[in-house]
Predict the structure.
Amino acid sequence: MTHPLRENLELYADSTGSRIRCARCLHVLCGAEEDWRRACKRKLSPPTHAGPLMESLSGHFVLEQLCCPACGVLLNTDLVADPGKKTKTNRKRRRNRT
Amino acid sequence: MDSLIKRVDPVTFEILSHRLHQIAKEMGITLERVGGTINPTQQHDYMASLYRANGDVLSAGESGSWHAACAGFAVKRIIERFEKDGGIYPDDMFLLNDPYTAAIHQSDVYMISPVHYQDRLVGWSATFVHVMDIGAMSPGGNSPGATEICHEGVRIPGVKLMERGKIRRDVFDTITGMTRQPVMVGLDIKCEIAANNVAKSRMQEMYAQYGPELVDAVSSEMIRYSESVIRKRIAEIPDGFWTDTATIQSGDTWKVALTLRKEGDHLLFDFTGSDRQAPIGINLPYHATFGACFGAVLDMLGYDLPKNHGAFGPIEVIAPEGTVVNVQYPGPVSMNTRAGGAIAKYLASSVLMQMLGTSEKWKKEVMATNVGGRNARHAGVNQYGKYYVSNLIGTGGSGARSYKDGIDSGGGQSCPNVEWVELNFPILYLFRCLSEDSVGAGKFRGGVGSESAVTLHDAPEGKIKGVAKGTAGLRNSGQGIFGGYPAAPSILILLEDTKVGTLMNQNKSLEDMTDLGGRVRVLPYCDFDFKNNDVLYTRHGAGGGYGDPLEREPRQVFNDVINGYVSKKAARNIYGVVFVPKSDEIDDPETRRLRDRLREERLK
């Protein structure tokens, strides 16, 4: 039995248990209760990897891509804070003041 | 009533249900036809809906559903206030714009009209129009300098504007007189009166034709039907939880976090973890945050149903007090619809989309969603020597779907006519076009966003005022989903002291923005002077992509390149599509090899 979790990712169950697998190559990423993101190949790139107009994000954000570690199909893409830059949020600043 | 509804045949039910929707639609058409300002007539910055006698949403007709929910709260507040003091009589009409009562921000002025049939209160109609000015610090209402609600203009928790069919001139003149544009605001208010009169008249005709018992029974059944179908659809989806966060950046950064928990036929939207409310007007009152979730549920799970109070039943919204999504008095709110509101609507849609992606039946409905975008207001003395206030709005692209590309220049509100803007205001467009490489890539790409540049033209004072607003930040455009890429950020740039005047005097057209020269200012939330020879450039948000760009049909990438939406460089680097050198043909074997190599590189 299978049901989708998102494009190219599915929950798969048989007599031995439930697992999350790549729907493209059927590579098993992890158990059903585990975080599939941790089982992915993670690649960080400059934001301009998503296009030349992303230049203004450089130094603030990087492009995080999570792929199936077997076939390389892309499962998630996101802009995340550049690990090289400390981003202060309103919440953190308030905490520092007290 | 139960026995009556059992006797209603499905055909009559459908006819009455659609007739109510059509009344709300006709209200919207009335706002557009009778209105005289850019917001109702060209930009669809309005709402028109019908309510039951107790204020429950009966038909969330035209425009944003979140306003339909908030106007329902406004109806309930009017009932509470005037039932005991002042009375609610046939042909009365009430005005309300207080965000700490039920409105979202003061510029969106609600007009609320009771509908009586044979002297019995049988329902309500409500509209809002984003009026041209509301007497706030900055012209137009959105005030970047405001640090509390009292800086943000006229605030009315409910006042009777029409008494038994007669407009109260004292109230009308007082309200319009507190704005910079009494005549234009008066036009906005009067088109709302007209739309509510249309609703009242059509509702009364319906009651006369079918009888109050039948219309009431059908109204109850419509809400019960919508709620039962939405609950059934929610129940079909596996239980779970989904999260997302988004930020607003303008000097400081404010984060909004949302977790959606789905259990059985119930949805809990929990904004716990969002930042404290801001000292600038990006904050949302709770009812607006609720409205954002209500609208998202209606759009995704009830798009084919009567849009009404039925979507209230299955949802619960937690927004901690004193946060950006539940502002406490006297926190400012004037810029919130396109700031905190854009973020809340994005997050509510994003978590719902993630939820739909886990259902075999519903995954086809998934689409990428947009965080918002930048835009501006302008105000000053126009070429006719008259003071004016107006908007500069463009259109972004909508997000990609699971089975097709997003709509180009198809997100947000309608785009005003360029010639109309130039005729009425001292503004000249240098260009307005679709923006190359703005979209989020994917198996299906986002819709292409627009970009525009304007300069000052024929302004008697040589300058006007501008207000930079919208969703400030670097993640303020379409966000990709399920591997799809984010779109380019929306930006607002003021180029000061450019050579635009010289170019125009030489009859030269603008080939490249760099030809303009000038000093570049990327605008955060701020008021600014827009002077002769300045150029204001806006890139609006584009749509986020869906799925892996390496799975996109090469022929579709080819079409995007030919149409100027995607550059050849992006086609190669992002989509892995190779063109035959010095030709517009795709090199299929090289494309396959490049795509294999790009996948391998991901695994290194």
